[in-house]
């Protein structure tokens, strides 16, 4: 009986022991998503700071990396307050009804180690305005063991996730085919996030 | 005598300058603010590269974005200036013509 109890207690530890959970809610407030829309008549630049989510990463098995990165839609900011109101409004992102933009990471493929960083293709699903699409995003992961203490004064590890990719607003049903001269269809997104895994 | 002869011309030059003033001023403001082709901005994003780990930039950097409230002229500023100048010019021409009509009818 004791052996069975021991097995059930340690089975999850043995199974997921190597994987570490990294929290992407940055207490320093540096985690930012930068976006750009370059239309014929107008160029819109902005950023969003409401990043959160958890990613499970095992330095020994990086291909099995999985998790979710969420972004508060209301944290999207542009340089013109009127434009921002429109962007958050019902016709565009409708942040009241759809408060989060989410990328659900299933696994990593095409892994290539380059120095300290790991380049890969993140396979997952992107959800914007309740529309979920399969997407493969190029990512660069940097695992910094024991470096959390130097960043947040808490012992633990850091995982840096960098990516540059494009999203088409047409695909997510955001005013498809409309106002293309002022609001570009292709949105250039750049992310540079630090996730923390404190030692428990 | 000399000043009397030139006064109407000088007056006309001053009036022309006043007419052009809105467009010129707004154009200068627009150029000084960076000649943005898009509309006005109420804030600017200040981007700063900060090391992921303080004092160790070799481990990589992150872009920290800070928004600062500041008004920046957009393309609408010189456009408004142009419209005001056009209106003033229209009023001047209209007044000149009506004055001419009065003088000819008086003669």
Would you write up a description of this structure?
- The complex is a heterodimer of chains A (200) and B (107).
- Chain A has 200 residues and is mostly beta strands.
- Chain A has one domain: Beta Barrel (Lipocalin).
- In chain A, 14% of the residues lie in helices and 50% in strands.
- Chain A contains 3 helices and 11 strands.
- Chain A has an 11-stranded antiparallel sheet with strand order 1-4-5-7-8-9-10-11-2-3-6, covered by helices on one side.
- In chain A, a hairpin with a 2-residue loop joins β7 and β8 (117-128).
- Chain A starts with a helix and ends with a strand.
- Residues 6-16 of chain A have low confidence and may be disordered.
- Chain B has 2 domains: 1-36 and 73-107; 38-72, no CATH class.
- Chain B is built from 2 helices and 2 strands, in the order αββα.
- The longest helix of chain B is centred in the first third of the chain and has 31 residues, at 2-32.
- The radius of gyration of chain B is 26 Å and the shape is rod-shaped.
- Chain B has a two-stranded antiparallel ribbon.
- In chain B, 14% of the residues are buried.
- Chain B is α+β, with helices and mostly antiparallel strands.
- The interface between A and B is medium-sized, with 30 and 24 residues.
Distance between the termini of chain B: 25 Å
The number of helical elements of chain A comes to: 3
Biggest beta sheet summary of chain B: 2 strands, antiparallel
Oligomer state equals heterodimer
Note the gap between the termini of chain A. Answer: 29 Å
Biggest interface: A-B, 30 and 24 residues
Sum up the overall morphology of chain A in one term: globular
Helix fraction of chain B, binned, reads 55-70%
Reading off the top of the CATH hierarchy, the class of chain A is best stated as Mainly Beta
Give the total of beta strands of chain A.
Answer: 11
List unreliable stretches of 5+ residues of chain B: none
Helix and strand sequence of chain A? HEEEEEEHEEEHEE
The CATH superfamily of chain A turns out to be Lipid/polyisoprenoid-binding, YceI-like
Low-confidence segments of chain A, given as residue ranges, are 6-16
Helix content of chain A: 10-25%
CATH topology of chain A: Lipocalin
Q: Which structural class best describes the helix and strand composition of chain A?
A: mainly beta
Rg of chain A is 19 Å
What is the mean pLDDT of chain A?
Answer: 90
- Share in β-strands of chain B: 15-25%
